[in-house]
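ingest -> validate -> predict -> emit
validate: passed (alphabet ok, no gaps, 290 aa)
predict: started
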Amino acid sequence: MEKIGRNDPCWCGSGKKYKKCHCDIDEIIAEHKLNGEIVPSRKIIKNKAQIDGIRESGRINSAVLDYVSSKICEGCTTEDIDRWVYEETKRLGAIPAPLNYEGFPKSVCTSINEVVCHGIPSEKVVLKDGDIINVDVSTIYKGYFGDASRMFCIGNVSEEKRKLVEVTKQAVYLGLEQVKPWAHLGDIAQVINDLAKENGYSVVREIGGHGIGLEFHEDPWVSYVTEKGTDMLLVPGMCFTIEPMINMGTHRINTDKEDGWTIYTADGKPSAQWEIQVVVTDTGYEVVSK
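emit:
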């Protein structure tokens, strides 16, 4: 890290003197780095103004998910969901982050049953009685990013599927309880993976959470199969998603060869995912979108 005088402006852009801002935090980070731990770079630690912007984007993102929740039902198409997300996001003065992102053609990801993630909305895909679906909404507002997803049970869902959905949500919030300064990303992963295994499930390994805020996808990459005390140190100002994908069967996955986006379970069994966006605070965490 670049050396900064105590009375110089802090590197984070807050406008405060370094000694009144990140000086103490940097000293703690340096100690952990000397112990061989993985520490965050300065570029992924947000200042107060940035967190305020991320929070507002997250608020809009959650409002769009609320809107979808009020309308989703048996008989609607995933194209309907895409239209709702696009129209409500624009009405709130924001932009759907997935639209045209690296070629993704829609405003939202809709992943049904054995689709793990990145399902592409289509007028041909109609929600049926017994389906489970993940709706993954991401928002850009004034240059800041919000991101969260929810599961929905359509009609008379089997007890097996319903349990998968409920356990996956429980895993996310168990992981959230581990978020605090000077803990590690592996602490989150350990409790999520343990709960999944206890219920006979598996956690997807190749796809995980991610840093977010100033860009759609930032460091760190967030695994859900690592161990407590490992992975990156959690530092106030970090913002990332907790979004494990938990499969009823094998953890193995396949990518659709035609569209290059849709991820399926290799054995055709159902998968579930909930996603929340969190900021590490001085005392614990703040959920900015859910």
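The longest helix spans residues 48-71.
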